[in-house]
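Here is the promised in-class demo. Please do not try to memorize the tokens; focus on the logic of going from shape to residues.
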């Protein structure tokens, strides 16, 4: 899964364009999802997790659960025993069950 996530690494300027798209329309889940994918590729896992969790909180089933699937792939790439993953899983649980 780490290789698949790395494939989303943005080209120069692409990350800024995706950030601008989300800023222009914060409710555009596809733009936010694309930004999160680029952030993962750029090594910005905190920002990516924030964006994916934002989508999940707004619409759990958006795009057949794509945001949750991407977040779980990120967890696997980082390592399920990692402290960062544990913290993000708690945030996800609060959204899903809180």
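The designed amino acids, position by position:
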């Amino acid at each position: 899964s780490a290789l698949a996530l790395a494939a989303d690494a943005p080209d120069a300027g692409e990350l800024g364009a995706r950030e601008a798209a989300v800023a222009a329309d914060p409710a555009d889940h596809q733009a936010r999802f694309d930004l999160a994918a680029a952030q993962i590729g750029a090594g910005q896992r905190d920002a990516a997790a924030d964006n994916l969790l934002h989508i999940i909180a707004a619409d759990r089933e958006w795009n057949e659960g794509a945001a949750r699937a991407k977040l779980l792939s990120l967890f696997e790439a980082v390592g399920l025993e990692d402290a960062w993953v544990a913290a993000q899983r708690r945030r996800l649980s609060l959204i899903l069950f809180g």
